[in-house]
Specification:
4 helices; mainly alpha; single chain; about 90 residues; elongated
């Protein structure tokens, strides 16, 4: 998440797109769809080639994309929920 806060979010702000929490979650969900499509493509490769001929490295793109999606959706939703919660729910007494 540090890379997102220090590199990715500032980059998007510089180009004029403010990464608000709901926008980040929407982009994360879109990335999750892309990761599942990548996974389907890798499975298609496995199914159409001889056993043990498809490199495990074909899985890296989908892992990277689903990890980014997880950061954008899960971390952002926790931050958003805490920020929007009433003060009475934030007390630790």
């Amino acid at each position: 998440a540090r890379v997102f806060n220090q590199v990715i979010y500032p980059f998007f702000e510089r180009i004029g797109w403010r990464p608000l929490p709901l926008r980040r979650m929407a982009v994360g969900m879109l990335l999750a769809v892309i990761a599942f499509l990548l996974s389907a493509g890798v499975q298609q490769l496995v199914d159409t080639h001889e056993p043990n001929t498809v490199s495990i490295f074909y899985q890296f793109p989908q892992i990277i994309v689903i990890s980014a999606a997880e950061i954008l959706v899960s971390v952002t939703s926790l931050e958003f929920s805490y920020a929007e919660a009433p003060i009475t729910m934030k007390k630790h007494d």
